Amino acid sequence: MQHGKYRFIVGFLTVPLGLYALFVIWPFIQSIYYSFTDWTGLSPDFSMVGFDNYERMLDDDIFWKSLQHSLLFALLLPVVTIGLALFLSFMINVGGRRRRGGPVISGVRGSAFYKIVYFFPQVLSIAIVALLFAFAYNPDSGAINSVLRAVGLDDVQPLWLGDPDLALWAVMGVLVWSTVGFFVVLFSAGMASIPADLYEAALLDGANRVTTFFRVTLPLLWDTVQSGWVYMGILALGAESFAVVQIMTTGPGGPDYSTTVMVLYVYQKAFRDGQAAYATTIGVALLVVTLAFAAVVMKLGRRERLEY
Amino acid sequence: MGSTSAENHGTGDNGTSGVGRRALIRRSAALGLLSVPTMSFLSACASGGGEEQEKAKSGKKTEKNPLAVNDTAQMEFVLFDGGFGKEYAEDAVKVYEKNFPKAKVKFSATQKIQSTLQPRFNQGNPPDLIDNSGAEQMDMGVLVGKKQLADLTPLLDAPSYDDPSKKVRDTLRPGIVEMGQFDGDPVWIMYYAYTVYGVWYSQKALDSLDEQYPETWDQMLAVCEKAKKKGMAGWTYAGKYPYYVPFSLYPMIGKVGGREVLDAIDNLEPGAWKHPAVKTCFEAYYELYKKGYILKGTPGLDHIQSQTAWAQGKALFLPNGSWVENESAKVIPADFDLAVSAPTGIDSSDKLPFGTIWASGGEPFIVPAKAKNGAGGMEQLRIMLSEESSKNFTSKVKSLTAFNGGTDGIELTPGLKSGVAALDKAGENVVNPRLQDWYVQLQKEKIGVSGLGEMMAGRITPVEAIKKIQGFADEAAKDSSIKHYKHQ
């Protein structure tokens, strides 16, 4: 069977790799090339300018702010989202009290219902989620401040998206809300495939829920968590963060640059200011950040695979 | 990218293979995920070849056809489908088709001007007439700088549609031609709509306070105080887009300090923002915040939310443009009695009289330099600048056009009527600050959001705001990556 195996694999991979090279690798190379030009994006003429765009980027305060916010997104959002999703899916699948006559391992009461509810936000497009929350954050008549007023907190009426100290957190909250459901479902599927006898053995040994989670569930789920981590980090660096910042925030990107992120800055430079070459330069920086993020996660997450 | 355990330990599903199947799938998936969001939208902007397309031969110049349009050539017209809709343009296209029955008109309306047209500019085959407007507007400065636009002087010097003895340029409202110029004589843009900026309010609400629109700042504060006692805020504005504040603040600066102050600001002259008139006006606006005359929560409202709160009577005054009547039509009550006024000044020592107002063109139409049938595009514009088309536009979308007149014999809505009255009162004293079309980023995100927005939210003082804004302006003046303009 070994004979010709590689030819077989290559035969299958040619088409996808070709498509990948054409639609992914080639644009990468192109945009690196454009980052050394002064292309406006509005006419076909441009000339080479060497490292001018890179020098300019290093001097650009807004770029550094957007980098800072993007890094914060990439570090914090996966921790919060995946932590929360792990907790919720553990409670749904494993964390329930043992009921008389029921299976050994089960979720909390009503877990089937929760599973569906958590998935709801995933069904909505991110643009709609962002719009809904923009309404909810309205300081004058939005849902959040109305609730605060209703419970008598008339003096606590934050400006939310209008306050530079709160806006970034308000945006992050929306991203967590809209993505956590997906990971709950992903992790639930992973947990369902862990054999029940492992849990039974742990319970017989007197393990409580916390121990079970850290000693049984998490190690067996590690691969899924790791991919989830990379996936979430990329969402936080890429399209999702762009959508919420662009739709929800002051300016967008404000107030006073408190919410600007790299993808938004790329977009503004390319499509608002007619500086496509500079935008691709920031795009290259974003590529470096994304690659570094994936490399770090893969490196830190390397563990011996457990078979079961 | 780091490798995974399966490879190193050979414990994958297939013990003899070098690469575990799962690991392979996982790694390629991760790689795919990694690259797609980062770059997918950059791939859309690859610059194209740029061969010139063949131009249509010009037709015969006659009295009816002063621009010598080829009566069999196709004319392509792309409209921004925004607040004004597309009906007015479709009506104008019908006139073109009637005048040139053998020509085919390809008309389309879209909100995505940039996404649809940017690639066509790059490839050198743009349409013949474009309404370059909306959120996806293509940067005019870059288009002009890269010689992508046709000079509209032939159109302006052609006889007007209604009266052959008058040139088109003589039928336009003040400022329209100048706005289309960037550097020197050529006119690159024809602004079709005419917008009146100022302070918008409900005459009914003012009547209920037993007040007139205030002409001096002391009166303004008195009116706000009176409103506050009745539980109504004096002002609200689009807090999330604070670049609406200049709609009344800039003409106020012009009124207090004279036109030169606004011109110096537009020209990015050093120290332009340090002029005492700027400080006086900034302090006046800051006082609105200090005295609690601004609707609570305003910095967190977007334009629609602030307009809604204002229409509900939660606030008296709103800096805005004449599109507000159409945009907020659904929430403005029938008995609101919408009115606009030129901004309140400081007192009688101001350089210009009360009534000094900001009015300028909106809906910029352009004819690309590389268009196949540029003459056709200009002829379409000439039709749109006729009295009949102008009236059609005004009655359909409640906005004035660049055509001077065109309001007789049609019924005007309250806001429009008050806008026409405000223009009459202003007479010669129409100012036209250009920052918002010359330096978009500077005006919107720097001066607007980071300067005025922060000041109106009370997070920085007027002195700090001026220092910050002067810094932004100096940066923009030095920035070699943006094109700089000067008032002629």
UniProtKB/TrEMBL annotation, chain A:
User: Which segments constitute the ABC transmembrane type-1 domain?
Assistant: 67-297
Matching Gene3D superfamilies: MetI-like
State whether keyword Nucleus applies: no
Q: Which InterPro entries match?
A: ABC_transporter_permease, MetI-like, MetI-like_sf
CDD domains in the cross-refs: TM_PBP2
Q: Name a biological process GO annotation.
A: transmembrane transport
PANTHER family to which the protein is assigned, alphabetical = ABC TRANSPORTER PERMEASE PROTEIN, DIACETYLCHITOBIOSE UPTAKE SYSTEM PERMEASE PROTEIN NGCF
Q: Which family does it belong to?
A: Belongs to the binding-protein-dependent transport system permease family.
Q: Know the name of this protein?
A: ABC transporter permease
UniProtKB/TrEMBL annotation, chain B:
Q: Does the UniProt entry include the keyword Iron? A: no
- Kindly indicate whether the keyword Isomerase belongs to this entry: no
**Where is this protein primarily located?**
other
Family membership: Belongs to the bacterial solute-binding protein 1 family.
Cross-referenced SUPFAM superfamilies, in alphabetical order?
A: Periplasmic binding protein-like II
Superkingdom of origin organism = Bacteria
Q: List the Pfam families.
A: SBP_bac_1
Provide the protein name.
ABC transporter substrate-binding protein
For this record, the Gene Ontology CC terms, alphabetical, are:
cell envelope
UniProt keyword list: Signal, Transport
Q: Where would you find this protein in the cell?
A: Cell envelope
Q: Where is this region: Disordered?
A: 1-20
